[in-house]
Amino acid sequence: QVLLVESGGGAVEAGGSLRLSCAASGLRFDQYNLGWFRQVPGKEREAVSCVGWEGITTYYADSVKGRFTISRNNAENTLYLQMTSLKPEDTAMYYCAARTDFGPCRRAVDFGVWGQGTQVTVSS
Length: 124
Description:
This protein is mainly β. It has strands at 3-7, 10-13, 18-25, 33-39, 46-51, 58-60, 68-73, 78-83, 92-99, 113-114, 118-123. It contains no helices and eleven strands. β7 and β8 form a beta hairpin. The chain is globular.
């Protein structure tokens, strides 16, 4: 069974930091391109950041560039998202996702494997 399990979410004040983790099982982790998406009620799920299977190719949404850092540890089957200088507009449910093909980090529909999400709440 393929599983992605996120953790590390929580409530912080603006300017604070959080580190999200996504533990994977049941798949050849190093063969998957991975991403973090976020969603607020009533809005579409949006891409936050993606990383290639090799851990080198990365993408960041303009809204998080310079504040968030994506990384992966293929030996430990874990994806990370280090979030700093958090803003209230970063408040959302954050999901990790995986895909076997390589493509733009943009559409949630391109990712076939999803975690259950972890809530991030940033207060002003």
